[in-house]
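Annex B. Sample input.
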Amino acid sequence: MVIKPSERKPGTGTSEKLIGIFKGELVKVNPTLQEKKEMYGWADKADEKEIAYTGEKDGKDWSRLCFVFLDEITKKYVEYGLFISDELAEFEKDGITKKWYVNQWGQTQLVDDEKNLFKSFTHIQKQNEDTKEWEDVIGENGEPVKLIYRQAHKGETALYSLLRNLVTQSWFEADADTSLFIKPQHLMRGAVKDITSLIGTDSFQPVVGMVYVEAKDTDNGVQYTNNCVDGAWMPGWKIKDANINSASNSWSKFEIAPKGKGSYKLKDMYNYYQSVKRCKYMWELQPLHVFQADKFQAAGNQTFVPAENTTEVTNLDY
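Annex B, continued. Sample output.
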């Protein structure tokens, strides 16, 4: 018997959408099938297969990373997935090849030639308290201290964007011994111990992210669609900055990248806001909530609900 797509039995039960802003700690990376059963209450089924996090396509090895966070307010799990490939991250446009690079601090940069990398990407620099200029840090040998960097693999820009916010490291105090590098060869084998060994320790902090989650109860169990916004991550403590700015409904200040004294405090918020605008599934800046289409505006319209129209977003301790 051949089943046509139109005749397939539809899923049963409920469908739930959660959208908005979440804050929570990382609790799992690449959970096993048994761990997912315990998390989501899945029932046992016959002929079950373990979840595959590695594979090969078109002669290229790949690895899927699934980060699971627990939202502080809803106590629901939020998943963020990305793929890492052993293929280098580069592309050609108008005859020009551009390549992504990543350094040991998890910073990424896209350039057409390695020689065009910013000096702040390849060298450790500190701000001179008197001149306010950024200067090279000089090592014991009298030479500028350099950062280790390499060409990034596909998917690593998204990975390190998350890791930079997930770790508790103060990047103004980072030195040559500070490194977020995870060997791509390990990830290709599905080895994530470099990350999971830090879960529950002081090395990781809660993060704030933007997310669109849909959960459907189907014949094959609960199926989840997750769309965390790549690049829209902040350290958890910055939620106060997010709430203050949304309370004044002053998102327009982030149309232009902040410059000048103290602008580093707003730079993450600027990048965060730009990431949110690019996501067609994202809605107002609010804590994670159940979606009701008739009540909300899409973030693509750049219309955000002022704080006086919500109760939760004004809570600066969120």
